[in-house]
Amino acid sequence: MVLGIAGCSSQLDDYYVDPDKTTNPTIEKLFSGILENNRIRPQYWEIRTMSATIAGAYCQTATIDNSAEDRYFQNAGHVEGFWNDFYRPSNQSSNPADYNTGNGVMAQYRTMQRLYGVLPLDERPNVQVFMMAGRALLLDQTAQMIDLFGDIPFTEAGSLDYSNTISNAKFQDQKELYDTILIGLKDVAEWFAGTTLNSSAEASFKSQDYLMGGSLDKWRRYINSIRLRYLMRISFVDEERAKAEVAEILSNPIFYPLVDGDGVGDNYNPLNTDVLLQQFNNYTDNLRNVFTETRAIAAPDYMLNTVMLPANDPRIPFMFDKNTNKGKEPNKTYRAMKYNETKQADSLTYCSIMDSSVFVFNSRLPGVYVSAAETNFLKAEAFERGFYAGSAQAAYELGIRQAIAFMYYLYNTSTSKYEALTQPSTATVSAFLTQPSVAYAGDQATKLDRIWTQKWLHFNMLQSRQAWAEWRRTGSPKITTFPSPRPGYELPPNRLLYPTSEVAYNSSYSEVKAKDTRDAKIFWMKE
Question: Please, is 97 exposed, middle or buried when counting C-beta atoms within 10 Å of its C-beta (0-12, 13-18, 19+)?
């Protein structure tokens, strides 16, 4: 039940003050606590309980056990944990082995609002930048909650700390709440565009903002890019609004700069360009247990066999290992185990698996808020659909070049490289762009399908929640879903069911009970 309880403990001893352990929490340090989000970082609990086994399984950016009748069944505990990690700080510890989860962005921002509300007016300019940046992060994560659940509590969530009022937070209409998010993102973007920090605020923000180093330019790019993302997400149900606002963004890159790499493809540097949440230096764990505990170690069938291998995709050796078979002999070629393989455990050793260097043993994998490749795929779709005049092909091909460079960047983050690989050359990537299944050719439906498929591939397991949202919005790629024999759970759902705590204890649940089904569509999905 969402009551908005404030308080947490965190790894960020130098950045963050736990309100439960001090009488003087500060806006600046609470902001750093909002940044500490292991639902963004690819750590064990997020990948094991959501990205691989729920979102990734539903849209096939991850492989699941096809013999399990419950493969499309929603694990109630895992979804409960995800819900709680948005609404309240939980499971945060200074011990890197304690697979931390979310950061309670809602609760922490409500505490920031309370503290801001009692500040003397002459002190507010020193911390307003933290309030605006925190608001952007809250709006981003709120949109992602809507993408998963539909209607959610928002305005009344956190009332206990913010207004000293105990209440069951009411569920709000998802479409109206998305409108609130889009208006809010525009407001925050325009505030960042017109602000100049005083020396105190500038120094403090640079010190506490370990996500973007206090760069106002990078915050502007992040906010405009996620606004573009969510405008495109509603574009099939509110095309008029999406078209007008997307055109506003794309027509004025000076006022609305984006995380798009500024036209640099093969040689763009994700570390400098993208909004990435790095692992802390004392983090030494990796995703090995995720892959040994689940079938996610297997290369996804459609991704490798249908999308990548026929096109000779240069990312293949960065994303997958050929594996070693039962006879202890290395497999000679890349090949994903078929999704409908009857004996997956026996067949797996003869099939490709997730790459050891990049995914399995890499303790430096960053979390991705937004990347240049995603932004350029969004621009390509907007251009192709006539939202603004521009070259859809150029944006599409730039997105692919950046996606390939991004995978090479991930490879270089690893300190456990099991194979020496070099970055695909410009000539290699140019040849890849001419492959029949990749080349920007055909009718509009074909072109859009290729944009969306390449974006799904770029998201892969690390951004499975984004991949699942886009797959539900667009229907691409055209993956084959194999039904489960469990009655009522034959196919992946359209949304996640509400957690049991909301059903049992939130008196407002009765207002959304009729919508709380697996088949109910998120409002931006096509009919």
Answer: exposed
pLDDT at residue 343 in the model? 61
Q: How many CB atoms lie within 10 A of CB 261?
A: 25
* Mean per-residue pLDDT, 473-482: 94
Residue partners of 232: CB distance under 8 A and separation at least 6: 242, 246, 378, 381, 382
SS3 call for 304: helix
pLDDT for 353 beyond 80: yes
In sequence order, the 6+-apart residues with CB closer than 8 A to the CB of 49 are 75, 78, 81, 82
CA angle 269, 272, 277 (to 5 degrees): 110
Q: Retrieve residue 259's tokens.
A: 């995380």
3-class DSSP assignment, residue 31: helix
SS3 71: coil
Token match 């055109």: residue?
Answer: 247
Count of residues in the chain: 527
Residue type, 220: R
Angle subtended by helix axes 128-149 and 199-208, to nearest 10: 40
Q: How do beta strands 171-172 and 152-153 pair?
A: antiparallel
Q: What is the pLDDT of residue 71?
A: 85
Q: Give Cβ neighbours of residue 233 (< 8 Å, ≥ 6 apart).
A: 143, 147, 469, 470, 473, 524
| DSSP count for the chain of H helices, then E strands | 22, 6
Q: Which amino acid is at 404?
A: I
Query: For residues 159 and 127, is the Cβ–Cβ distance under 8 A?
Result: no
Give the per-residue pLDDT at 345: 66
Asked if pLDDT for residue 17 goes beyond 60, the answer is no
Mean pLDDT of 257-278: 96
The full DSSP string for 100-113 is -----HHHHHHHHH
- State the pTM of this model: 0.93
Convert 141-177 to b/e letters by CB count within 10 Å (16 or more is b). Answer: bbbbbbbbbbbbbbebbbbbbbeeeebbbbbbebbeb
Rounded CA Rg of the chain? 22
Nearest to 30 by CA among 58, 50, 57, 8: 8
More confident residue, 11 or 445: 445
Task: Report in angstroms the alpha-carbon separations of 427 from 151, 377, 430, 443, 466.
Answer: 48, 21, 5, 27, 30
For the packed helices 76-87 and 105-117, what is the interaxial angle rounded to 10 degrees? 20
Asked if pLDDT for residue 12 goes beyond 60, the answer is no
Separation between Cα atoms, residue 53 and residue 133, nearest integer Å: 31
Cα dihedral: 362, 367, 373, 379 (round 10):
160
| Amino acid of residue 206 | K
Q: How far apart are CA 23 and CA 124, in angstroms?
A: 20
